[in-house]
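Hello Y.,

Per our agreement to keep a running log of every chain we model this quarter, I'm adding this entry. I've kept the format consistent with earlier entries: sequence first, then predicted structure.
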Amino acid sequence: MKYLEKAIDEDCGYLIPTWEYISGYIDGEGSLTFGVVQDKRKNWKSKIDYYQCTPTLSISSCDYNVLLSIKKLCDDNNIVNSHYYLKPKRKNQIKTPARLSFNGFENTKKILEKIIPYSISKRKQFEMFLNEIYPIYNNRIDRGIHNNKMWNKKDWLKMFEIITNLNLLKGGIRGRNWSEFFKNKWK
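Predicted structure for the entry above:
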């Protein structure tokens, strides 16, 4: 964060954004993605071949003040951002863009609940997350000590079918089709 603050003009103050404003900004400059990682060295909660799924809500902009004001409003509402960094500059780009990201099911849910009443272009994606994907995540089976919740293969596959449908709303599946991957893996 300190690197971005150095890039901001000292004369510029923070904007005071509203959730309506942030919703519009995310509709235009944001994305909801799902990352999948397999790491056998770590004891992921999924316990399904050591796979972990993490949703990320990202906002990119060359206007650092807007990102910092969004970050401040989210901090004030106990929504913790995971990453705040400068992106690589593209050819013929005048200013270096920055990205503000929120990782995890809980942080993504908190933001989407605040902005969904005002969302237009990404509303269907956000509704699918809140009404279909998050409940599957939240209803994982309680097992083990320390109230760890674990996935079962049926719910995992159901979640990825919904994620595939959500990605189709974005104009097609980008990258790996995880739904097909896990179906084939666990035949």
